[in-house]
Amino acid sequence: MYQLLVSGGVVGLFLQVVPIACLVGVIYAIYRCIRIKKQKISVKWSTEILRWLFVCYLTGLINLTLVPRNFWSNIWALIYIGYSGSQIELFNGSFNFTPVIFKIIAGELSFGSWVKTMFTGNLLMFVPMGVFLPLISAKINAKSILKIAIMAPVVIEIIQPIMGRSFDVDDLILNFIGINAGYLIAVGIKNLSCKRR
To answer: Following CA atoms 171, 177, 183, 189 in sequence, which dihedral angle do they give, to the nearest 10 degrees?
Structure first.
């Protein structure tokens, strides 16, 4: 299990942040239950569950994109072997302003398994954001999701080099597509739900 957690693979990175996402989810659930009980708020439980899932997802997303790359690897190393692992380095991120597709066309890079994994991961990572937002808030429409799809990836990419990660134009493009794809899925879900009523 330890080897999987610190492997740096997609599954390992996901498993690293599951505990903190669950912990924040529990804290949020307790907070909401207390608030609902005290203020006697009328709630729609399906929406509350979606909000809870969104909080868990957002916690995981923040930890996968804005926490220093080796932070959770070090935490798990400390838990399993009593050694904190490599030093966390800040302000040493890299920058990529050339989309991968141009590098592939130029013959500088092949569309191998690593590129496919990064493309798929960066796309799918933001699909839930596009799905959750319109389902938990009636205020979210195509115009607002477009703004979010631009701003959220830009803010994340600007912060990443500070946290020892990388600014990558491919991430901006794929995250943007992911959020909008998620929004289209949510619209489809809403339309199906309306037809069944």
So the answer is: -110
Place of tokens 């399906």: 46
Tokens of 118: 């990064």
pLDDT tens readout for residues 152-196:
999 999 999 999 899 999 999 999 999 999 999 999 998 887 777
Q: How far apart are CA 146 and CA 148, in angstroms?
A: 5
Backbone angles phi, psi at 167, to 5 degrees: -90, 125
For residue 168, the cross-strand partners are: 96
pTM: 0.87
All residues at 6 or more sequence positions from 32 whose CB lies less than 8 Å from its CB, including other chains = 48, 51, 52
* Continuous H helices in the chain: 2-5, 10-39, 45-65, 71-81, 100-105, 113-124, 127-136, 142-159, 169-196
Enumerate the β-bridge partners of residue 7.
Answer: none
Give the span between the Cα atoms of 4 and 10, in whole angstroms.
Answer: 10
Cβ distance 53 to 144 under 8 Å?
A: no
